[in-house]
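For reference, the entry.
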Amino acid sequence: MLTSLLLCLLQQGAPAPPTQWEEIPLALRVNRSIALGVDYLKRLQLPDGSFAGQEGIHQGGMTALVAFTLVKSGVRHNDPALLRALEALEGNVFRSTYAASVHLLLCEALAQPKRRAEAQTSLDFLLANQESGVWGYPGLHLCNSNTQFALLGLRAGHHLGLEVPEEAWIDAVDGLRMFQDRSGGFQYKPGERPEPYAGMTSAALASWAVLEEMGRESAKVRAALVKRAELQKGAEDWLEHHFDLTQNQFGDGSWTNSWHAPYLWAVERWCGLTGRKSFAGHDWYEEGARFLIEGQAHDGSWPATSHPTEDTCFALLFLRRATLSPDGELDEIYAEIERLRAQRPERFVVPGPDAARLCDWLLAGPWLQSGGAVLLLEPPFDPADAKPKLGGRLDHREWERVTLSSQRWTDLDALTPRKGDEQLWAIATTLVWEPAAGSAAPFEGDLWLDFEDGWDVWLDGQRLSRERRRATAIRGDVRFPLTLTPGEHPLLVLVEDRAGAAAFGARVTDRANQAPPAGLFARAVPAKH
C-alpha cells in the first residue's frame, strides 16, 4: 500500500526532479533513506553471513539485530543477505539480555511457525534472568536499557503464543521505579548519581507502554499499573521539559549525541504503542525523521557515534515505525528515489584526509568544578578578556606551550600531569593568514574541532559557539566557517572534561574540504610577541 502510494506520487510529479532537497516530500526522503541504510547494512555482512559487534558479551546479538532491522525495513524474506544471516544464527544460544530480546523480536517479525522452539529458548533465558523485576546483562549491574529490551522480548514471545507468566509483568511494574529519581526522570542504572536523561526516560515510558498493553489482558497487571501510576506521570512531566528530538538531554540541560538513535527508537516505541502523534507540542515522527535524514552519511550509515552499525539499525527502525508497522516490501521505489541522490545535502561531514592539523598551542588549567557549578557556563575568568601569553597567567593558572598530536586528537589529561574529571581547560593559538604577495584576499575555509564534552570557542575576541554536549564520539565534526583577513587572529577554546578523556584537536581545510593554502597556519606565540 505504502509502496503503491509513493510510486503514484513519483509518477504524478513534475517530469524533472526537484532542484531543492527540501522540496522532495518527506515520505519519499524517508524511503530513500531506508534504502540507503539497508544497502549499507548488507555491505557489512561477513562471508559466514554474520555481522560483527560485541560478540564476547552479546554473541549473535548483532546478527539478530541487523536481521530484524532488514525484515522491518521491507527486505523480502527470501533475500540472500537475510537468509545468510538466519543461517549464521542457526544453533546459536543467546546468553545476554540484549541478544535474547532482539532474537525474540526477529522471530516475531519473521512470523514463521518453525521459529517457536528457538524463540522459547530465548524467552526462557529472559524469564530466568529477571531480577527484582528488571534485567541486567546479566552478570553485571541491572539497567534500564536492558529492561526495556527484555520487555520488548517478552512482548514478542507473547505475540508468538508463548506463555509469559503474569508475575513477570507485575514484577516489572514494581521494578521499573528503581531507575527513577526524584525529578521524575529515569537513569541508566540504579544507584547512579541523579543523572536522568531523555533516552532513558523515553525507554522507561516505552517499557510502561508494553506493560499497559499487557494490562489490557490482565486485571492483576492493570491493578499494579494503577498502583504505580505516579511513575508514568513523573516520567512524562520530566520528558515534557526535556523533549528535543535533536538533542538527548540530561536533567541539567546539557546533552549528548551518544545513544541518540536508541533514544529516537524509544520515542517511536512509546508513542507508537500509545497512539501519540505529538508530544510537548512536537510532531515526534516528522521532527525525528528530518533529523535522521539530514544526519545520514552518503554511505547510508548514521556515523555520529562510535557504534554506526547499531545506530543505523535503530535509525532505520525509527524511520520504518517498526513497532507497529506491518511487514512491507519496498521494491522499485528504492531505484526511483535513488535518482534524487544528487539533490541531498550532506549534514554529517568530517574533515577531508588532507586537512591540516593545528599543533602549536598555549594551554592553561585545569579548573576543577565543585558544588554543582558548571564552569563552562561560569568560568572563573571572562573569556572575552583572556590574553594568552607564554608564561602569563589566567586566573592563577600559567600558560604553557604544548604540541598537540599531528595524527589525531590529544588527551589534555595525558599531555599534562594534571589528570582528572569535572574540569575545564583553556587552550589558545593564533591563526595566521599570509596570502601570496600582492594579494589581500581573505581566507575562506573551515575550522574543525575534536571534543568529547562541551566547548566554548572564541575567535578575534568574539564567541563562535558554546555547547554543553557530553560523552560523545570524538570525530572532529564540530565545524566553523572561517573568513580570515590577512594577519593574525587569536583563537581561544574552553574544553570541558566531564569524565574520561579531556579530548581536543583542531584542523583547517579550505571551503572544498581540501588542504588549506600554505599561507594559512597557526602558532602559539603571535609574531608581535
